Fold:
Amino acid sequence: MVETNLNKISGWIILDKQSGVTSRQLVSKISKTLKIKKIGHGGTLDPLATGILPIALGEATKLISFVQNKKKKYSFTIKWGEATDTDDTEGKIVKKSDFRPNKEEIQNALFSFIGKINQKPPNFSAIKVNGKRSYNLARKNIQIIHKSRPIEVHAFKLKKILNIDYAEFEVICGKGTYVRSLVRDLSEKLNTRGHVTKLRRHVVGDFNEKDTIFIDFFKEIIHSPSLLKKIKPIEKVLDDIPALFLTETEEIKLRQGQKISLNSLKFRDNFIKTYPNYQKFERVCTVSNNKLVALIEIDDGLVKPKRVIHY
Structure:
């Protein structure tokens, strides 16, 4: 259930981010519009990029990590022959190549990037290095060497060759994947150079473009009623994890931080029947009266609250 009291808003606004604005700027704009301080976003989009940007309000901020762990779907355009220091059009050209790959060469190269692979993040990224953002260091020409990190690419395909210099792609990937790095590495695999000229995020977990609302960041006034009508329930991001139902009495105990014996719960049998391997799940939530109560762990027969949701 979504709270509409401005002091108790909890839920998700799914923005269709426009190009030319940062994710943080949009968060600040909504915070000011709704007069809410507890706010965050579920996965940064580059200023150049457009598409789905989940904004967490109130208690939904406790679930941001769930959104960040979801699969994402992007479409993007590569320009061959030029590498930039930012791996997109915002940077300056640092390397060039006269070679242009053909369709067969591109499709064969894509197989190397599907599955669990290691990827080195771009220097112009929000990753912190000794407490400072990588992009701030890069702008000062301070040398940065990021370590490769494991990521997972579920699908990567060539959509269309636009002309000799440009091609469109689509990728479905997991947490921590940088499309700009994929483009950089794919270009090098093809013995050329390349950078992103257009990037759009179409899907984040269960959120897709049907869920989005577009606001023009560059307009001075944004009407809060239109935002409030579009707020998604806080539980929306937990549709794919096990749910343990509680009575009101059990809910009160858990909200007070008490541990409860699993065997004492009224709906214990239903939960175990539905999830016989529940002990193997890393994440479980509790629900009462169709409202999220807490994220829990079940250990040694005890239900322990890890993160309580307050409405």
Remarks:
- The CA atoms of residues 248 and 289 lie 8 Å apart.
- The chain has three domains: 6-69+206-236, 72-204, 241-308.
